[in-house]
From TrEMBL:
SUPFAM superfamilies: RNI-like (SSF52047). Gene3D superfamilies: Ribonuclease Inhibitor. PANTHER family: F-BOX DOMAIN-CONTAINING PROTEIN-RELATED, LEUCINE RICH REPEAT FAMILY PROTEIN. It comes from Mucor circinelloides f. lusitanicus (Mucor racemosus var. lusitanicus). This is Uncharacterized protein. SMART domains: LRR_RI. Pfam families: LRR_6 (PF13516).
Length: 505
């Protein structure tokens, strides 16, 4: 049998007896397409000349015709059309926009909260708190930012379903759990859920029965939370361990600005207060501290003074009203002299006598930061004028105090005249409250009237007028106001107007 002319039509398996005896290789005709060139490389002339034993070798592929195949690559194309959103913008704006979009996607509808709570109670096999469920149902059409459960007893087994709701991000900012008889385990469950949701800003835990572990959980929450701004722990009982935990939480807090601890039962020893004052001293974000009506012992003036010790990030608002501080004002006044952060100091109803007022006045004369001082309901003018005279000298030197409250401080006309003498020399005081001092007669009022004319900053004066003088004084005040109004009406720029509040019994 002769060998075929075309190499593609030649199949060795069709003629096993044929053997090529020629020595010269037969060159294939020239190919122009890439398919032909590929075909020639795969099946070259040397592959055609196979031995008879190679026909049965499974490793050798049988020669077949190549076929042209077309693949669709339409699905492999990714288009990037130009859009106006691709314009570079402020990075902070883009981050806020993306965070808002994520929060909107994750936040469930307020209308679903009641169903969530019912489902949580069923899963935990616990009874529902009807007051809480009704609150969720009433807020179907509005965002639930405030929840008030005060005076609602919450047992540890009831805290679980509550935490299943608080863990959701539905915009909760204020939570009132005052007088709920919360125990350590219950507050642990609730605080864990609030920490996960990360939206709470104001938390009221006043009048609850916390032990040392409860304050440990509160301290951890204050430390880890990124949103909490104020915590109320009024009327709670503090022991040494609990106060130490709270102090540690204050040191590492990053967002807490206000702490309220009014009418607390703080048990001795003195180290309890000392550790708390150290925590406040080292706090970097705390700005407002309220310690009203705590009945501190007479030997606790040192730690109170440490609360306003000069530092880089000191508190700005301190309320110590309702505490007997007359014997503890020495250390407090010494620290107040060099304080550079405190703006508002409330010492109302602290049993401060003329001796304590003298100490405060000495510090007030050198202070360059305090803007508001409340000394109301203290016997400042009892028996002697020494304290008021010291205050007079302090007002003449002070350049930052803007508001001074001397309401119900047993002032009389002589002490009022002394204060009036300091007003022309003072260039910062804007508000002076002398109300509820019935012993101030016409002499004191006239002294104030004269001194106000020489003062250019005082805009508010609150004083009581005895009934015997109202028929004489009121027409004068009315005529003065009318005359001043007519005078200022014709001027383009009006001077500072004085505002006089007259209390007529």
């Amino acid at each position: 049998m002769n060998k075929p002319k075309s190499i593609l039509k030649y199949r060795p398996e069709n003629n096993i007896n044929y053997k090529d005896t020629s020595i010269t290789a037969i060159n294939p005709p020239p190919r122009t397409s890439w398919l032909s060139r590929l075909h020639s490389k795969i099946y070259s002339q040397t592959d055609i000349a196979q031995d008879e034993n190679d026909a049965d070798n499974p490793l050798l592929l049988a020669k077949q015709d190549l076929k042209r195949v077309t693949f669709s690559v339409g699905n492999l194309i990714t288009e990037h059309p130009f859009c106006s959103d691709d314009i570079p913008r402020d990075e902070l704006y883009e981050k806020q926009k993306s965070d808002a979009a994520i929060a909107k996607q994750q936040a469930p509808q307020v209308t679903d909260l009641a169903n969530h709570y019912d489902h949580a109670c069923i899963q935990r096999e616990e009874g529902c708190i009807d007051r809480f469920r009704n609150l969720l149902r009433r807020s179907r059409t509005s965002q639930l930012q405030t929840i008030d459960l005060s005076r609602q007893p919450i047992a540890p087994h009831q805290a679980g379903p509550l935490s299943d709701i608080f863990i959701l991000k539905f915009g909760l900012e204020c939570l009132n759990l005052s007088n709920c008889k919360l125990e350590d385990e219950a507050i642990r469950i609730i605080l864990c859920s609030l920490l996960v949701s990360g939206t709470i800003q104001h938390l009221d835990l006043s009048q609850n029965n916390f032990k040392s572990k409860g304050y440990k959980y509160i301290a951890i929450f204050i430390k880890e939370s990124k949103t909490i701004q104020s915590v109320d722990l009024s009327r709670c009982t503090f022991e040494k361990k609990g106060m130490q935990y709270l102090a540690q939480g204050l040191q590492y807090a990053t967002t807490l600005t206000k702490l309220v601890m009014d009418k607390c039962n703080i048990k001795p020893p003195t180290e309890t207060f000392q550790s708390f004052s150290e925590g406040v001293f080292n706090a970097t974000t705390l700005q407002t501290l309220s310690l009203r009506n705590n009945h501190f012992a007479p030997n606790q003036g040192t730690w109170i003074a440490n609360l306003i010790a000069p530092r880089l990030h000191g508190i700005k608002d301190l309320d110590l009203s309702g505490n007997q501080l007359n014997s503890m004002l020495g250390p407090l006044a010494a620290v107040l002299r060099n304080n550079t952060s405190l703006l508002h100091l409330n010492l109302s109803n602290c049993q401060i006598s003329h001796e304590g007022l003298s100490l405060l006045s000495s510090a007030l004369g050198d202070n360059h930061c305090l803007e508001e001082l409340d000394l109301s309901m203290n016997p400042l003018g009892h028996d002697t004028d020494e304290g008021i005279l010291a205050l007079k000298n302090a007002l003449a030197r002070n350049t930052c105090l803007q508001s001074l409250n001397l309401s119900e401080t047993q002032l009389d006309s002589s002490t009022t005249i002394a204060l009036a003498e300091a007003l022309p020399e003072n260039a910062s005081l804007c508000r002076l409250d002398l109300s509820k001092n019935p012993h101030i007669d016409m002499a004191g009022i006239l002294a104030l009237a004269i001194s106000i004319k020489m003062n250019h900053t005082l805009t508010f004066l609150d004083i009581n007028i005895p009934p015997i003088y109202k028929t004489t004084l009121l027409p004068c005040v009315r005529q003065t106001c009318c005359k001043e109004w007519k005078h200022n009406k014709s001027r383009i720029i009006s001077p500072c107007h004085h505002r006089l509040h007259l209390h007529l019994p």
